[in-house]
């Protein structure tokens, strides 16, 4: 039987008892609070179109709604994107800002994430524009300009505490993914390798690149290695290069995603932070490792 989840942003919640009650009255089922005023679940809704009806009642309120199956609800494998997912920024745009070309590079990034450009070609074009950038400048950007997305550490710590394996697979760069993957707590991090000569960027990236195929293939490979059906996996990202893994995961989550990605994902989270992925799995506040 399905579960209807209502989830708000912990720092600016618009989910209250009255709103939850209106949804229950419309769709039927049993209300259970996972974290009061932040996340609740409605068990076994009676309506055949519970998600659409819930979203209509929610209206303009900043509350996400998702309908998920109860079977295999708690996942044992997470594969996550990095830029604009586990961290708040796009690393390559921040590197471009260091040499005064952020607008130019960010425009290419945005089109690539929307699926309007070939990811590999867009990556090569942007990296070429960074030729000559010093390693020490990149490290300063990493230290001073990149911030962790809210809820990320709690997500990873909690899933690992309950036996899950966590993988950060990024179309960005190892110089960021290795560093932030460790800080957040991921079991592994995979990303593109920037090439240097005398501690300056050559303007090229090591081939083959990490792209949408890599993300999908890593998800399936890890599931096979751990003898898990894909129904026991969760994938999260925001851009077009995340869609392939989002489509095949048990829970495919578009987090604050581009419209085309949100439209195709099984679950879309527009307002909640990364702890939303825990509430989707039925974790309550007392179970979350912070």
Structural notes for this entry:
The relative contact order is 0.17. The protein has 290 residues and is of the alpha/beta class. It folds into two domains: 1-71, Alpha-Beta Plaits (2-Layer Sandwich); 72-89 and 148-290, HAD superfamily/HAD-like (Rossmann fold, 3-Layer(aba) Sandwich), CATH 3.40.50. The protein has helices at residues 17-27, 50-58, 91-98, 102-113, 119-129, 135-144, 152-161, 174-184, 212-225, 243-248, 259-264, 276-280; strands spanning 2-8, 30-35, 39-43, 63-69, 77-80, 165-173, 188-192, 194-197, 200-205, 233-237, 251-255, 267-269. Helix 4 runs antiparallel to helix 5. Helix content is 39%, strand content 23%. It is built from twelve helices and twelve strands. The strands form three sheets. A six-stranded parallel beta sheet has the order 7-6-5-10-11-12, with helices on both faces. The protein has a four-stranded antiparallel beta sheet with strand order 2-3-1-4. Helix 10 links the parallel strand 10 and strand 11 (251-255). The longest helix has 14 residues, at 212-225.
């Amino acid at each position: 039987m399905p579960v209807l989840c209502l989830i708000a942003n912990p720092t600016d919640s618009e989910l209250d008892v009255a709103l939850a009650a209106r949804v229950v009255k419309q769709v039927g089922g049993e209300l259970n609070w996972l974290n009061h005023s932040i996340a609740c679940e409605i068990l076994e809704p009676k309506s055949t179109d519970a998600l659409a009806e819930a979203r209509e009642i929610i209206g303009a309120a900043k509350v996400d709604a998702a309908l998920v199956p109860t079977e295999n609800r708690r996942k044992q494998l997470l594969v996550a994107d990095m830029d604009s997912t586990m961290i708040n920024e796009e690393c390559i745009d921040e590197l471009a800002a260091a040499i005064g070309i952020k607008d130019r590079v960010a425009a290419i990034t945005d089109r690539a994430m929307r699926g309007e450009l070939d990811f590999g070609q867009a990556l090569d074009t942007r990296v070429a524009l960074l030729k000559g950038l010093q390693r020490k400048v990149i490290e300063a950007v990493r230290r001073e300009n990149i911030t962790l997305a809210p809820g990320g550490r709690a997500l990873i710590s909690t899933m690992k505490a309950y036996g899950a394996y966590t993988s950060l697979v990024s179309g960005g760069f190892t110089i960021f993914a290795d560093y932030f993957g460790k800080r957040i707590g991921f079991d592994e991090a995979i990303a593109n390798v920037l090439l240097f000569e005398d501690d300056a960027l050559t303007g090229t990236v090591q081939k083959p690149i990490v792209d949408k195929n890599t993300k999908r293939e890593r998800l399936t490979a890890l599931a096979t290695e751990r003898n898990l059906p894909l129904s026991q996996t969760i994938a999260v990202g925001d851009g077009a290069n995340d869609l392939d893994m989002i489509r095949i995961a048990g829970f495919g989550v578009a987090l604050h995603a581009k419209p085309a990605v949100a439209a195709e994902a099984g679950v879309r989270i527009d307002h909640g932070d990364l702890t939303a992925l825990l509430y989707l799995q039925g974790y309550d506040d007392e179970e979350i490792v912070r």
